[in-house]
Amino acid sequence: MNAVITQIQDDSQVRLDALAALSQRLLERCRANGASQAEVSCSEERGLNVNVRMGEVETVESTRDRGIGVTVYFGQRKGSASTADLREESLESTVVQACAIARYTEDDPASGLADAELMAREQRDFDTWHPWALEADQAIDLALVCEAAGRDADPRIGNSDGASVGSGESLSVYANSHGFIGRDRDTQHSIGCALIAGQGEAMQRDGWYSTALSADGLEPAAAIGRRAAERAVARLAPRQIPTGAYPVLFSAEIARSLVGHLLGAVSGGALYRRASFLLDSVGTALFPAWLSIEEQPFLMRGFRSSSYDAEGVATRESALVNDGVLQRYVLGSYSARKLGLQTTANAGGVHNLAVSANAGGFEEMLRGMGRGLLVTELMGQGVNNVTGDYSRGAAGFWVEDGAIAYPVDGITIAGNLRAMFAGIEAVGSDVDPRSHIRTGSILVGRMTVAGTD
């Protein structure tokens, strides 16, 4: 990366010690107020974000936040309260309020802490802490370099939506009355740029960004600007295509949304509310037999790596999908009890997913499709989680003879997620590393595309 990474004095362990001590004091107060079980979450966040546009600084924002959350259980009655005020009277009031709420709620057989025997016994370091001593002036310079490189890359770039640079760090402690206490620290940094090509009604907008846990993992600022320019210019003079049924290739950064729809359908909340098209689907073949999806909570520098979930339950590597067959749901302890099952250590979400590939890089995926639609942008929220029906606005490129022919927009792609999952013909090796869902581009063999009649 074209930036100096300055070393700073790291006081994160001291701050974590203070949060841990605070969590223990709060748990003692919960017990003193009669709670049979309790859990406490304490967090601190710091960040710097700058935005520039057309060579001028628009915003410089420095943030420093903290939060304390207390949840108590009186048998199977639950109450929660939160505060950002560390004064003793405020902390005491927060505990009292949580207890008062619990005393007036009804019993819920599924409520309570996760089972004590499931708590994590070991906490590992996944190399997620890389603070960046980023000063505002330095961040502004990076953003200006990024935007200038994009604006200078092509004479057809006539305007800009700006460039941004951000850096943040987060410390958190989770503790409960089982005696569990978890400590976590992570950082995340980003550079992004959005540019506008063309003039008048012919304008097209696109961009690019890089994000990483360590500043040295970011793409160079100028390269991000140039890539944003390339993407914006490539979308000029779009056409429409005739309505029909075509192969659809979801680019890697878009393909992870398909995995997101799967997660939504197999999450405990949707299942116990019976609001999912994948009810009672464990053991069912949903995907082609060559496709697997693995959860990898112990991935070094993973965006969601952790030894424990949001309830302190020990995480583990496991298959969500193996040989095309759904192996399990995605559950915390509450949803698991509602379903008569056991938590899968997914309170708070999944911890890094890897989708298996059966094809090569992006160019090979284009050649394999031959003729069809490449989707690089999706619009709208047209997904029905109950039926699996899928209909979204889209833009991208028409592909002929295995190569991009011209840009397209103003179209809608439609299908049913169950059929789309079963109809996946290939997953590329062109993994987008900017997410905890690690997948390459995904080719669905046939979808309805609504263009011009």
UniProtKB/TrEMBL annotation:
One Pfam match, given by its short name, reads: PmbA_TldD_3rd
Positions of the Metalloprotease TldD/E central domain: 130-236
Output one GO BP term.
Answer: proteolysis
Q: Which GO terms describe its cellular component?
A: cytosol
Q: Name the InterPro entries for this protein.
A: Metalloprtase-TldD/E_C, Metalloprtase-TldD/E_cen_dom, Metalloprtase-TldD/E_N, PmbA, TldD/PmbA_N, TldD/PmbA_sf
Q: Which molecular function term from Gene Ontology is one that the record holds?
A: metallopeptidase activity
Instruction: Tell me which residues make up the Metalloprotease TldD/E C-terminal domain.
Output: 243-451
User: Which residue ranges does the record assign to the Metalloprotease TldD/E N-terminal domain?
Assistant: 38-102
Q: Which domain of life is it from?
A: Bacteria
* Annotated family: Belongs to the peptidase U62 family.
NCBIfam families of this UniProt entry? PRK11040.1
Matching PANTHER family, A to Z? Answer: METALLOPROTEASE PMBA (PTHR43421:SF1)
| Protein name as annotated | PmbA protein
Organism per entry? Luteimonas cucumeris
